[in-house]
Design goal:
α1 crosses α9, α5 packs antiparallel against α10 and α7 packs across α10. This protein has 2 domains: 150 residues, Rossmann fold (3-Layer(aba) Sandwich); 184 residues, Dihydrodipicolinate Reductase, domain 2 (2-Layer Sandwich), CATH 3.30.360.10. It is α/β, with parallel strands linked by helices. It has an 8-stranded mixed beta sheet, covered by helices on one side. A 6-stranded parallel beta sheet has the order 5-4-3-6-7-8. A two-stranded antiparallel ribbon has the order 1-2. The chain is 35% helix and 28% strand.
Length: 359
């Protein structure tokens, strides 16, 4: 890895030797709000360039990231040189070809979720990366949410005793971002995150039961909400749900164990801060904490206690990815882990269509 020209808050170019140089392919909502700010905050990472074509998108990049090179295509970015890795955050139907193009060029890749339309398609990308000897990671950044990290700490503390079941609910009042059509839908969108969190917390899944809510859009029938029950091989069950069209905004975890319960009902702290115009690089120490009045509550025979919020740290994803590139180690979310998520989503889709449990 080398160094790259980037820009500081004053717009002047800087150069960091030894940092991983990463290019950002796509500058829509994902690239602009969920990648670029956290790349900027990550130690050991420099933003080497952005692929953007539409004039209005190019203008946004120039305004947000003065001094960062802009390219009309991934091929142009590759030809220019000076990058070690790329993040692919274009629409889902375009990702396969771009991931394969980057891998063929010997670049390490962060693929946004869902990184493939099916588990079989994900295996193709994983095999291509392994043959080329590059690191392929998937951007399941919601492992780095404040609430899920707080929950993980509670589970690891053992205070709940034997864990029985876990409920996760994520309702967004955000109709405009529902990705419509047969290749879109909420199951592949938020479902990718929520299933990944459950597998990360509870281990592999044995069987899946799902129901979904369908709407008709010009692009085609679209799933706009879902409820999924997961039976994990550990014996714990998980129940996850999400919506975008129901005018609800709820982010909640409930954990039930033999010795008590834990309830967390907070906000989407990092996303809300980003959309409010804040950036983690401005105050990384204070970034990503839930407000004390919204801390989760642990209830056991010892009584109730408020559990302080862990720090939400999407930038840590990029720091860990850079370490994996430097050491040829494991990225924070491996392609194999993402494939296991896709397999559950494939099973959930089959369950919803066919009205049966899928093992």
């Amino acid at each position: 890895m080398g160094g790259v020209r980037t820009s500081n808050k004053a717009g002047r170019e800087t150069f960091e030797e030894g940092n991983m140089r990463i290019g950002l392919v796509g500058y829509g909502t994902g690239g602009r709000h969920f990648h670029a700010p956290f790349i900027a905050a990550a130690r050991g990472v420099d933003l080497a360039g952005v692929v953007a074509r539409a004039p209005e998108t190019v203008a946004r990049v120039q305004a947000d990231l003065p001094g960062v090179a802009i390219y009309p295509s991934l091929a142009a970015m590759i030809s220019a040189g000076g990058i070690d890795a790329v993040t692919i955050t274009t629409p889902p139907q375009t990702r396969r070809e771009l991931v394969l193009e980057a891998v063929a060029a010997g670049l390490h890749v962060v693929a946004d979720k869902p990184f493939a339309p099916s588990a079989d398609a994900g295996r193709e990308l994983d095999e291509a990366a392994k043959k080329k000897g590059v690191v392929l990671g998937v951007f399941h950044n919601r492992r780095f949410d404040a609430d899920v990290l707080t929950l993980k700490g509670v589970l690891q503390s053992g205070k709940l005793g034997e864990l029985w079941r876990l409920h996760s609910r994520m309702d967004l009042d955000d109709p405009a971002t529902l990705d419509a059509g047969p290749t879109g839908g909420l199951l592949r969108d938020l479902g990718s995150h929520l299933v990944d969190q459950m597998i990360w917390l509870l281990g592999p899944v044995r069987s899946v039961t799902a129901n979904w809510d369908l709407v008709e859009r010009p692009e085609g029938t679209t799933d706009a909400g879902f409820v999924i029950s997961l039976n994990h091989k550990s014996g714990v069950s998980a129940h996850i749900s999400a919506s975008k069209l129901n005018r609800l905004a709820v982010k909640e975890f409930l954990a039930y164990g033999a010795a008590g319960s834990f309830v967390s009902s907070g906000t989407d702290v990092q996303a809300q801060a980003i959309f409010a115009g804040k950036r983690p690089v401005d105050d990384l120490t204070a970034w990503g904490y839930e407000r004390p009045e919204l801390w989760g509550v642990l209830r056991t025979s010892d009584g109730e206690e408020r559990v302080p919020s862990a720090q939400g740290r999407y930038h840590a994803y990029y720091e860990q990815f850079a370490e994996a590139v430097a050491t040829r180690g494991q990225p924070p979310v491996t392609a194999e882990e993402a494939i296991s998520v896709l397999a559950v989503l494939d099973a959930a889709r089959a369950s919803a269509i066919e009205g049966r449990d899928v093992g």
